[in-house]
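Q: For a teaching session next week I want to show students how multiple molecules come together into a single three-dimensional assembly. I've collected the sequence lines for a complex. Could you give me the predicted structure tokens for the whole thing so I can convert them for display?
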Amino acid sequence: MKKITKKLFQGSLSQLTIPLIAIALLLIFNLIRDPGFFSIGISHNNDGNAVLAGNLISIINGASELAVLAMGMTLVTAACKGQDISVGAAAAIAGSVFVKVLKAGSSISGLTVLLAFLSACVVAMLFGTFNGILVSVFKIQPMIATLILYTCGRSIAYWINGGATPTVSSHIITAIGSFIPGIPIPTPVLIVLFVAILFRLLFHFTSLELFTQSVGINQSAARLNGINPTFIKLLSFIILGVCVAVAGTIGVSRLGLINHETLLLDVEMDTILAVAIGGNSLGGGKFKISGSIIGAYVIQMLTITLYAMKVSSTDVKAYKAIVIVILVVIGSPVVKARLSKLINSIFSKKKETVKGVQG
Amino acid sequence: MQAEILLQMKGIDKKFPGVLALNGVDFTLRKGEIHALMGENGAGKSTLIKVLTGVYQKDGGEIMLEGKVVSIKSPQDAQNSGISTVYQEITLCPNLTVSENMFIGRETGSFINAKKREKRADEILQSLGIPARGSMQLGDCSLAVQQMVAIARAVDMNCKVLILDEPTSSLDDKEVNMLFNLMRDLKSKGVGIIFVTHFLEQVYEVSDRITVLRNGELVGEYLIEELPRVALVSKMIGKDLDELSALSESEEKENKESEVLYEAKGLSSSETKSFDFSIKKGEVNGFTGLLGSGRSESVRAIFGADKVNSGSIKIKGKDVKINKPIDAMKNGIGYLAEDRKRDGIIAELSVRENIILAMQVMNGMFKPISKSEQEAFADEYIKVLNIKTASKETPVGSLSGGNQQKVILARWLLTHPDYLILDEPTRGIDVGTKLEIQKLVLKLAKEGVSVTFISSEVEEMLRTCSRLIVMRDRNIVGELKGKELSQEQVMKTIAGGEAKNEKDN
Amino acid sequence: MKNLFGKRREPLTDTQLLMTITIGIFAVMYILAMALLGGGFLHTQQIFDMLNDNASLIIVSCGLTIVMIGGGIDISVGAVTSLVVMSCVLYLNNGGNVFVSILLALGIGLGFGLVQGFLISVLDIQPFIVTLAGMFFARGMTTILSVNPQKVDHEAFNRLRDAKVEIPWLGYVAKNGNLVPARLEIGVIVAAVVVIVIFILLKYLKLGRNFYAMGGNQSSALMLGINVKKTRFLSYLISGVLSGISGYVFMMHTGAGNATNAAGMEMNAIASSIIGGTLLTGGVGNVIGTLFGTLTLTTIKKIVVSSGLNDPWWQSITTGGMLCFFILLQSVVLSKRSKKKKS
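A: Of course. Below is the structure for the complete assembly, covering every listed component.
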């Protein structure tokens, strides 16, 4: 045990140390607070389907949009050394397009839903391309470039549906937002799994990972090795665009309506946080998608834990901030170095005292 | 020389995780001397300098300045005790003015008087003959001038000890001479100068004394008259020079008639004027000329590294278009860039990933090389090129300069190029590795690979190349072959007509 | 100017160039507005109103400009402003005194500056994350203090709030024949003092130049003997204190506290700084530019409203368009310059 703690603090474990510790701490904390917190039961929803229920399920379910966005954001961060702060606004646009297309048809069938999703994808990818061109061609820092869409994205979403917040009701939409009949696992969780597998396959069947990391670490060298950095950066934004469309669709399907002002509000901050908690450098370069996914779950678990402690939804931010600070402080290289020194000195002292007793 | 001792470092130790970078090193600097600090890469020169300037903290030993023990914990401490440093990379702020760069960080009081400062800066710059004005934005000056400004700053700090860490690598001959005059001037004023460089000629031109380090240990301290060049080199690499001289004797440079591999007519890029160039199969040629003469820019144009403006290119007699690096790579051209850190290595990626990178790019994004294949390639080239690394998964940034260079060489060799361009492959790396790279170049040529070799050291080029293209002011001014390949002839061609007059003056 | 003294004129520095462009565009835009829309734009009060409404934004932007010049970012400024407003409102309503409320405002700002500065400079944590946490914390604390809007009910404060500087000769004669003097709020005076102080700090103080050096090249700054940690710490400290001042000015303008106060202010402040010619990469920028950045942003919004496009979403779309324009302009201008330098 001592060896393990020593190892952890000396940073010889992978970048996942901090997010995993965070999850473990949150789990232990919740178990002490309420031993029944993590009990998973089977309940029946309105359609009479047997579905899984419980805090753990709602954590994993609730983090879905965040997890999907964090995956895309990781890629953008790695390639462009900066973050896209317009994902929330872009998701509102994608969600609006999704609803607009659904409303355009006379009835909602599987085909129209697919069509609507594809339209949302195309629109989100277009906005991703816009951001990507600013970043890759005009060489503007990502946060500044995406500030434009962040500022006016929700207004564009407002315009798409003429300022209204139309609702859509269909069993297909419900199935996407909550459960598919006969499957007890929430659909958004399955979608996250699906997207994660897609990323895995993407990295397995292409060398995108290597190219992205090369561009993020040393763009000039990457270019001289025949990689087109402009393309890689643009691509990362387009892939993020797809993630945005997926997140927007999940968000709309959950509620069955599009509210351009509140859909995935403030999600960009949580997304960037998920990437950082996952141990990825916000300065680009090497990355681990899995870290960001875990990061997303850490954030959601924290939020749900706070809700369970009867903290109101508006106040959650303050507590979240404290936890974030504690996490990053533990993770900061300065503190790590100090801690490992401290631990080393404690251990060496103990050894000495042991020796002293024996002597 | 019974000069007063200015700085004494005794038994300096410095440990890094897993490495003993300095092991009980002594170093003594006297007043009014120029003291060259020599050693291969990884010998501990930079570490010793960084300990002295407070960038690193020593783990043992003591530093005495004018007989008093000093503790140097930060670059500021060093400055305050009269130790100034000018680094190879410009350590100034490009967004500030020249005068600000000269005075910032060392003024007392909270307020600044820009006018007074600019006036003072102008005086200093003028007295040192530096072509800059105090009110200019530093970023608007050329790199050489920026370097001179850094020296002016150090000079104005009334430093007792001036450390020049590879100051000449971005300067041309004229500027180097200017710098040397400056150094001699300072020396006469009693400043002790520590001079770190890779250029042997410069050491012998300007230094009084040499201290040699090897593998983090002191080899010895010598007066310049007592240490011939050959002895110096052998002390640095710790082996006899037979091998080095053997290379030039035994390896006969073949000049056989063979087919033309690459031919460019009227090639020009955003950085070059238009030029013609061709190379035969299995030929080693070189581009030589002063820094800024256009030698690097020319090979960059061949590889498509800068924006290509015009030119028709034939490879093996077929017309091809090379506008981007990937075009060149697909046509069998490899290019090892001049600046290893900026354009070569991907520091945080592993040795394995760095080796397979170019091959992967050529294969395309959708045909990734499998992990086992990657490992096989990495293992093979680590062995072939004798790359010293803890494992193939070690980040390449943690390797020494020479080994990093070998990794990049491996990267290009793996693509099995027909034509390999090596721009300064031996810059800033140790003598042993230099030799290995030169041998490799000749071996490749024998196997039928055409190589363009660029080096700042003319000797090295004479040893390896069978044809030298000489450039001046972005123009090709001569082509030397066979008997013409002598140091004297090269110098003459580089200098051209005007240089003679200068010498006469 | 310099030519008068017989000195050689240097090419503009990056900072000067970008600032000049912004001021030029502002002038052209305002003159166009005067010519095409007339009305309010012809009165001095229009400019004064813009200043009255945006005094706190100007103050916050000044702090952010310093942080950005130093190569960092502080996105907590809006939330801290909001927290200061709420805290002071509640304090005053519970029978506090005005002087102490000012100290409270400064104290909160100072506290945020201290903690954020410590985390960023000493523990070397990414500024975006730290100030994001600061933003979350301040927003959360604001709602913990009160979810409902609170109006200040305090006699002494109300007198301070209603105090205005009247300048008759800049006023105009209303339709009924009465002279309406131009009115400036106290907050604008505070903002003016802040702008002047920060301008002097950045231009004539050693500390100010150290911010530029740090933003220009951090490792060089270290080598030049600048205490980078301390400098960075101070930049966040100043930004924190200015957020505190901004909160108080905000309260003097609105006279009430609301959990959604100053929502999105951080982004407006970043936008102002960028339009004013500050580069997020650091090392380039100026508070005068930032002041004009804020004015340019507000003018655009005013023009949009005056043109009859009253929907709030038009404002944000034009703001986005403006940002896009200036960001592209900066990028093009600077890349042209760097090309020129090469040749």
